[in-house]
Structures are given as structure tokens and as C-alpha cells.
Design goal:
It is a single chain. The chain has about 475 residues and is mostly helical. It has helices at about 5, 20-40, 45-60, 65-80, 80-100, 100-110, 120-135, 135-155, 160-175, 180-190, 195-200, 200-220, 230-240, 250-260, 265-285, 290-300, 305-315, 320-340, 345-350, 360-375, 380-395, 400-415, 425-430, 435-440, 445-460. It contains 25 helices and no strands. The longest helix is centred in the N-terminal third of the chain and has 21 residues, at about 20-40. It is globular. Mean pLDDT is about 90; it is low at about 1-10.
Amino acid sequence: MTEHNKNQGAYNPRKATLGEALITFIVLIAIMFVSIIVFEVDPHMPMFIGVIIAALMALKIGYTWGDIESSMVKGITQALQSIIILAVIGILVGVWITAGVVPSMIYYGLMILKPSIFLVAAVLICSITSIATGSSWGTAGTMGIALMGIAQGMGIPLPVAAGAVISGAYFGDKMSPLSDTTNLAPAMAGTDVFTHIKAMAKPTIISYIIALVFFGIMTTRYNVAGADTSAVVELQQGLSDSFNISPLLLLPPVIVIVSIAFKMPALPGIAIGIIVAAIMGPIFQDIDFGIILSAGKDGFVSETGIEALDSLLTAGGLMGMMSSISLTIIAMMFGGIAERTGQLEAIIHAVLGGVKSVTGLVSATIFTCFLSNITMPEQYISIVVPGRMYAPVYAERGLHPKLLSATLEASGTVTSALIPWNTCGVYLTGVLKVSTFEYLPFAVFNIAMPIVTIILTAIGQNVFWAKDDPDTIVHID
């Protein structure tokens, strides 16, 4: 838009009112709910329709198409670092499975299972599997199914067993640098994935310990002597038949963990993990470097003949991450428009009201994520939309974006499993054959996370200020 046109009054945009912002968000919520619940589609196209609605509202209040386009580009630009990391992680997962790294992690994890500590072992096994694969869904749909069968044979109530599976799967999903949600949250907040993981470690570990203690007590209530663990033996046999299992293959994840500890940037740390696995793969498995390269692009296709393993290990690759990457791009288009035109700002002011304290802000963020999981029943959206809503507020109050990213995962990621009509709740009910309301009281980790996060914030134990760690702030406005 030229200066001449501006002077003529042709260019007169204003910030959206609360009513206008509510129209955009209510329409988005309605489209999301109907599309996901009624038509059972992925959230990509409903989110794109939301972009159209936000753009139309922007045009109505005086913004030009050039403004709208530039705001979309800016929104995408803010997430570029995490988009790159998601792509590289797709490569890493494909290479790690092909090289036998992930199979070795799962194999040794399964050795933990003892009938006398079944529920605790179930939590630990699902945690290891989810950390190794970065997928709570993949863990629940594979290890979870096997563990549910064993629990039934032991006489352990299935809702209790489902709670153990879900607690472990979501702990691993939150703490794994391979998880898409673990990468998405810092992208929305404005920090890097390793900083994010360290920031959420304290409340996550406390919640995890609470879950382990709970399931340790529950295990003592059941007589599990002589339990049939043949399903676990079958999984281990399938892994050892298809891969050369070795403790040396645990070196790549150890390297990534050490990288986190020594504050290496995310991309180099992940890249080193890929390189080490790519070198070890041909040494330990009957493969050449060409297979490693193909797995990096297209992922690994498992053909063990064991359905649970094949489902779990057929994963990874650059192309396998494109669904998450494309959703991030579309969501950031929406966020960019909503930020530029004041639609997010209007909603935030209405939500926060007189909230002044850090605890109040964290509590409001948690509530918003939970509400998003209820109304826009998709885990990704409950991270993206609240993330873009609150990022400017945290920045204005001098808070480090890692506090926001940790809070997003403390509610957006874990509470999705507690909503019967959320995609996560629907999926878990389908694979574990237990209704959401039945397993909900036993999903201890998922229930504890938001509560522990609020308590720690209230006592000042998990509050992070931007001035204390400015080097890990990314794309902060």
C-alpha cells in the first residue's frame, strides 16, 4: 500500500474487537469440532478454513491482502526453526530404527517387566518405548495392547492397567526430543526443544513419581503369581530375530542426552545422533549406507510378522514428518493473522481480566489448553492456538518462553487423553478397549501434571525469567 493511498484514507485498519475475535474463534471451534468428531478427518483442512475466516475478518476491519499475506509469512517464519527440527527428527527416527537403536531400547525396556511389579513395570516400559519412538499413540497401540492382555490374564482391572499404560506413554511423549508435540510447544512459545525439555523436567518428574507410587500401591492389591508374559517374550523374540540387539546401540540416545546436558543447540545435537547411528547401523545390522539414506527419507518399514511390532516400528523418515510440518505451517498462518489484527489480543484480555500474578497466568494458560482440548478436540491445536495467544503476554511480563512451552505441554499434551471426544481419547479407547471415563481416574500422570505445575509455580519453584537465560529465546517480539 502506497503512502499516497494511506493519506487518502484508503488504508485504515484497526484492531479487532472482542466480538469480532469471538466470531473467528467460535467458527474455528465449530468447524474443528464437527470435522474431527463427525467426519473424523485430520485437523489440517479445518485449520485452513480457520485461516480463511481469520483473513476475512482482517479484510472486514480494514487490513489489505498484503498485510494478511505478510502476517501469515511472519507467523510461519516464527516456527521455521522447529519446522527444521521436526524434519531432522523424522530423519533421525528412520535412521535409529533401521540401525537397531530404537529396537534395542525397546528390547531392554521389556526386560523390566516382572509380574510382582506389573503396573510399575508397565509404566516404565511404556515410558521407554515412548521416549524411543516419540509417540504416545504408537506406544499405546503396541506395547499398550500387549500389556492390557497380560493384565487381563493377571486379573488386574483393565481401567487400572490402561491408566498405567497412558501414564507411561504420555511421560515419554512429553520428555522425548523425538516427539512432535515436544517440538511444537517451544516453536509456539519461542525457545528451543532442549531448553523446553529441561524447563518441564521438574513438574514432569514429580508427576511421574506420583504415578509410580500410585501404581506400586495398586500392584500390591492383586495376586499376579504365575502370570502369563508370553506376549512380552514374543515381542522380544521378534526384535532379536529382526535386529542385532546390542547395548552399544544405546550410544546415540546417550549422545543426544549429553548434548542436552552440555547446552548444545538442538540441530547439532540431533545431527550427531543421526551420524553416530548411521555409522553403527551397517556395523550391527545387515544393511548398507544406501538403506540408511532411504530410511532417512522414507522411514523404516517393519516386516517382523508380529503386528504390534510392525505397527510400532514402521515409522520415521523426512516424509513421515510432513503431516506435522504442514499442520504447523497452516496453524502459524492462522496465528500470524490473528496476532497482526489484534484478534488474539482481544481474546487474551477477556481471558486474563485482572490476572496479575505468574501463577494466575500459568493457571489461565492451563485452563485455555484444557478448554481447547474440549472444544477443538485435537492435541496439536491445544498447543498451537494457546501458544500463539499467550506468547506476547509472557514476553511483556519478562517471563522466559520456556515457562510457556512447559505450561502448554503440562495441559495441552496430557489432558487430551482425558476428553472422550478428543482425537487422543477416541484413539486410546479404541486401542485399549476401555472407555475414557473408566480409565480417567487412573491416568494419574495426566491428572497430576497440570496440578503439580500450578503448585510449583505458586511456590516459585518453576518460574523462569527472560533476563536469566536470554540466549535460548527464539523469535521473541
